[in-house]
Amino acid sequence: MRLQKDITTNLEATRGDPIDAIVWRDYLELCKPKVVALMLLCATVGMFLALPGLPPVELVLLTNLGIALVAGSAATVNHIIDARIDAKMARTAQRPIAGGRITIPSAIFFSAVIGTTGITILALWVNPLTAWLNLGSWIGYGVIYSMYLKRATPQNIVIGGLFGAAPPLFGWTAITNQIESGGVLLMMIIFIWTPPHFWALALDRKEEYAKVDIPMLPVIYGDRITKLYILGYTLVLVMVSIMPYIIGMSGLIYLLGAISLGAGFVFRSSQLMLGRPRAAILTFRYSIVYLMTLFLALVIDHVFVNTVVNAFS
Question: Residue 278: left (phi > 0), alpha (psi -120 to 50), or beta?
Fold first, then answer.
């Protein structure tokens, strides 16, 4: 009843807007397309680094399609579970379910269809290992994190981050059909990146999380402890990010990129510690640019080494 009341209130507030009650854009929004796009970039990097040459185009497309559908399904489940709290937060009040534009039964059906399709694509045209890993990630994020961890502990992001860190491993297993150290290392980079990324947002939205009783780190332990955690994780991230160079997965192009991007992240985290204006949201935004550019640097380095250098060898 409380959920329906919150959704009805939001729907009434949007009446008169030039927006159809249910449009394809709302279903796309359920899939969290910006998050999924970053996941696909990371998965593609995993595919590129899993073999010396370039991965087959058809396999890249099928893998990314399957991952996108499964990830979109899990994101939809997250929308369903969080509909009540989304309706109470300014940042999320106009999401499709919280805003009353898509019903929960419709969202459940949509999630089931695209999730099943994605798993089928991965199982039949990629390999069963990648399909099983995606199913595990779906359960981890869509069920374990969204239903339990998010509301149970201020370490929700640390534990739940393991499920969201897996895309490069998916890409790696799509090529090799094995879980290998290279794919695990790429996954660890995202795993360590996730807490400072989300805690920066949590600092900026601390009052909203407190309002809906979500025990994010700044809500439970305060701003100073959260800022220390962010800086600590960022320093560890910088160290882990140079591991691909140390173990021979990448070359100097990536190393220079990792060091410069890491320096930028440390600077942002330091500004956050010093209490600079808008430092939290600026750190959050930089973290997205950081991860995207870091993984692009991996691909650029890999392509350069395997096309330009080998051409003259």
Answer: left
Q: For residue 25, give every residue at least 6 positions away whose Cβ sits within 8 Å of its Cβ, in sequence order, or none.
A: none
Residue spans per domain, the chain:
1-178, 180-307
Q: How far apart (Å, rounded) are the C-alpha atoms in residues 101 and 190?
A: 33
User: At 277, which amino acid appears?
Assistant: P
Structure-token pair, residue 169: 């491993």
Dihedral angle of Cα 176, 180, 182, 185, to the nearest 10 degrees? 130
pLDDT tens for 134-151 read 999 999 998 999 888 888
Q: Are 143 and 135 in contact (CB under 8 A)?
A: no
Q: Assign domain 1-178 to its CATH architecture.
A: Orthogonal Bundle (1.10)
CB–CB of 246/255 below 8 Å?
no
Residue 43 near residue 64, CB atoms below 8 Å: yes
Q: Check residues 284 and 15 and name the one with the higher pLDDT.
A: 284
Distance of CA 102 to the CA centre of its chain: 23
- Tell me: pLDDT of 10 over 70: no
Here the tokens at position 89 are 């937060």
Considering the entire predicted model, what is its pTM? Answer: 0.90
CA angle, residues 196, 198, 200, in degrees to nearest 5: 65
- Supply 300's token pair: 């650029």
Q: How confident is the model at residue 88 (pLDDT cuts 50, 70, 90)?
A: confident
Q: Please say if the pLDDT value at position 17 is more than 70.
A: no
Mean pLDDT of all residues in the chain? 90
